[in-house]
Each structure stands twice: as structure tokens, then as C-alpha cells.
TrEMBL record:
Signal peptide: none annotated. The lineage of its organism: Bacteria, Bacillati, Actinomycetota, Acidimicrobiia, Acidimicrobiales. PANTHER family: HYDROLASE, PTHR39420. InterPro entries: Zinicin_2, Zinicin_2_N. Transmembrane segments: none annotated. It comes from the Bacteria. Coiled coil: none annotated. This is Hydrolase.
Length: 405
């Protein structure tokens, strides 16, 4: 006799009682707030420029992998790093951690980066995860209950795909670790030779000169984030941002119903819509995130500006006249916004565009013009010296606050 008591049936599991789909739902239910298998596969797919058909488990061939890096390239980077390290330490006036440089393909960089920021992405996924609570008007609606359960089971996979794609797309452009100015728990110095060499060839720059420029950039980032109060300040801001999402299931519907579909190419319009994190994840920025945006922008601008100033000073010493050519080529590269920049900004709160770069450069140059090459020293030494949003626009105010009487 069948048990008529269905009080133990989970109303948020639309596949309850269906043997095969029930097993699938159990598997999805145990994946945590973010599906790391999906994140890893989409990171590799995006880093190699593949498509979803090339993913393991999706029935297609593997994406074409970048050949492993020749060991002699790693040795060369180690030699050049010894040169760059001394000059970076001299310009910054602080110690540069003695981290051995390693080399990686774009897909290796993507997988390493995904793992390095795992705690951060987990916090974000927890913040974005759908709630168990339904609105009162939907609590007795079986269809609403089913859709809520389906959304809850699919959210970790969707988040995994979004995070993996974002990291994979970053990997296709990254020279090293500090292209994304977020501290890692373990200091790292990871270079991506295929991308660096391809950029050098495109701009007709000597490979060794380009490698030295990138090493100066990465070592400056490594030294800056080795300063505890700088790393902790930015880490706290980013984690606060990713923890302050307020999921809104109606955001997807509202966005899609308000789309102005181009009748000549409706698919392009839909692809553009789903390139928006708010549509893909049903997330909208909260008042808390909007309120902290100026402070996070100020921190990122300061870090970008300080690293760029160090790189310019070091590059003139070790590269000479061609340093300006490399700086201009990299500036133009940064000015080219991409869809992954939008994801980094919306999901992590990190704005990486030309505006941020210009703000940081103007602040640091203003400090150096007023106080000389040692003018940034308080930033490295004083935990209270991180510039405020107002001080980023007025370097003199910052100097007045942090300079000794």
C-alpha cells in the first residue's frame, strides 16, 4: 500500500520520486555553493579558446592545449628575475620576497588562479546562492516551488561556469599573476611566456626586453602585496564586496523582458544579454556594494598606480629607451575593454579599465612631483596610509596627512 503521507518530500526538489532524476538531484545537492568541476572545465575551455563541445563530459573532443613551456624558458626567466629584483627593491625601498619565478601555459595559469582564489569565489557563491525561503504568495504554488528547487540545484553549476569562464578569459590575456590586482594567500610569481612572447612579436619588441618589463611588473606586485596592511586592506574590501550580493530571482525576468531585441540579429542580442552577470546569475548590486565602491576603487587605483610607477622607473634603468615603447603598447592593450572585464568588475568589484589606470598614475605622479621618489614610502610603512577616495584626486591632501610633522 502506498504511503499517502508526503510530508517528508522536499518541496524544493522537483525530481523527488523520479529514480534517475532523483539521483541527479542528489548529486547536484552535494556540490556545495559552487561546482568546482564545472569551474575548472570552463576555465580550461575559455583559456584555450575552445567551446562547450570540447569539455570532458560534454561529448566532444578536448580543446587544443598550449604546448608545455620549454624548461630553458623558465631558466631564462629566473636569470632575468635576478636582475629585475634588485632594481625593484631599490626603487620601492622595501624587500622583494625571494619567490622563484615559474612559467605556465594560459590553461595552467587559469587552473592555478582558480585554486588561488578559491576561498574568495566560495564566499561569492555563498552570497549569490538562492534562499530557501519563498515569498508568501509563492509558498503554496507548486510551480513556484518546483522552479525554486530547480534554481537552487542549478545555481552552483551556473556559478561554476561563470567563474571558470571569467578566469579562463583572463588567462588568455594575462602576462602574470598581478594583471588581476588581488592578493593571494601564498605569494606567487607565475609568468605566461606564450602570451608575453606573442605580444612582443606583435609590437616588434625584443623578447628579453619584454620579459624584463613583465618581471618588473610582477615583482612590484609581489613586493606590494607582501606589505601586510596593503594586502589585508584590499582582501577585506573584495571579500566584503563578494559577500554583499543580494540575489534577486526576478532580476533575470526583468532584464530579459526589458530587452530591446534587434530583429535583424536576435541571437546576438540574447548573447549580449547573457554576457551580463546580473542576467546570468540573477544578482544585483546591493546598497552596501554601491556604498563601498569609492573605497574599493581608491584602493585598486593606488595599487595599479604604484605598480606602474615602479615598472616605469625600473624599465628605464634595465631596458633603456625602448621602455617607453613597451609602456605605450601595454597602455593601449589595457584600454581595450573585454567582456571578462565586466565580469571582474561586477563579481569582484575590481575595475581594471583605462580610467582606473589614469587615476592611479595621476595620484602617484602627483606624490612624486611633490615629495620626490621617496614620497610613496609612507604607503609601504604606515597601516593608516591607504589613500581615501578624496585623496586619490588630491595627492597633496594625502601627503599632508601621512607626512611627518
Amino acid at each position: 500500500m502506498a504511503d499517502d503521507d508526503d510530508s517528508n518530500v522536499n518541496p524544493f526538489n522537483p525530481f523527488e520520486g523520479m529514480p534517475m532524476f532523483g539521483d541527479i538531484s542528489k548529486m547536484l545537492a552535494g556540490q556545495g555553493p559552487l561546482n568546482w568541476d564545472a569551474a575548472r572545465q570552463f576555465a580550461i575551455m575559455s583559456a584555450t579558446g575552445g567551446d562547450a563541445a570540447g569539455l570532458v563530459g560534454f561529448g566532444g573532443a578536448q580543446p587544443t592545449a598550449t604546448p608545455n613551456i620549454d624548461p630553458t624558458v623558465r631558466i631564462k626567466y629566473a636569470e632575468l628575475a635576478n636582475i629585475a629584483r634588485l632594481h625593484v627593491a631599490d626603487v620601492m625601498g622595501i624587500e622583494v620576497p625571494d619567490v622563484e619565478p615559474s612559467v605556465a601555459t594560459p590553461e595552467q595559469w587559469a587552473v592555478e588562479t582558480l585554486e588561488a582564489y578559491r576561498p574568495l569565489f566560495t564566499d561569492m557563491a555563498t552570497s549569490l546562492g538562492p534562499s530557501d525561503d519563498l515569498p508568501d504568495e509563492a509558498a503554496s504554488d507548486p510551480m513556484a516551488q518546483m522552479m525554486a528547487g530547480l534554481s537552487k540545484m542549478m545555481a552552483p553549476a551556473m556559478l561554476g561556469m561563470a567563474v571558470g569562464s571569467m578566469v579562463g578569459n583572463l588567462a588568455r590575456r594575462a602576462f602574470g599573476v598581478y594583471d588581476l590586482p588581488i592578493p593571494r594567500a601564498t605569494p606567487a610569481l607565475v609568468l605566461v611566456p606564450p602570451t608575453i612572447d606573442a605580444f612582443a612579436a606583435e609590437w616588434e619588441i625584443s623578447e628579453d626586453e619584454m620579459r624584463l618589463w613583465v618581471l618588473a611588473h610582477e615583482l612590484a606586485g609581489l613586493a606590494l602585496f607582501a606589505v601586510p596592511h596593503i594586502a589585508e586592506h584590499l582582501q577585506a574590501l573584495v571579500r566584503e564586496h563578494v559577500g554583499a550580493f543580494r540575489p534577486d530571482a526576478s532580476a533575470v525576468t526583468d532584464k530579459l523582458t526589458s530587452l530591446d531585441i534587434d530583429q535583424s540579429d536576435p541571437m546576438a542580442a540574447m548573447q549580449s544579454a547573457f554576457g551580463d552577470p546580473e542576467v546570468l546569475l540573477g544578482a544585483v548590486r546591493s546598497p552596501e556594494q554601491l556604498a563601498m565602491e569609492p573605497v574599493l576603487d581608491a584602493a585598486v587605483a593606488t595599487i595599479i598606480g604604484a605598480i606602474d610607477w615602479v615598472v616605469d622607473a625600473v624599465a628605464v634603468r634595465i631596458i633603456g629607451g625602448n621602455a617607453l615603447q613597451i609602456a605605450e603598447a601595454v597602455r593601449r592593450r589595457r584600454s581595450e575593454s573585454s567582456p571578462d572585464d565586466k565580469f571582474v568588475e561586477r563579481l569582484l568589484g575590481i575595475r581594471l579599465g583605462a580610467e582606473q589606470t589614469a587615476r592611479g598614475k595621476a595620484f602617484v605622479q602627483g606624490v612624486v612631483d611633490r615629495a620626490g621618489e621617496t614620497g610613496l614610502a609612507p604607503l609601504f610603512a604606515d597601516p593608516e596610509a591607504m589613500p581615501t577616495p578624496s585623496e586619490i584626486e588630491a595627492p597633496g591632501l594625502w601627503l599632508a596627512r601621512v607626512s611627518p610633522e
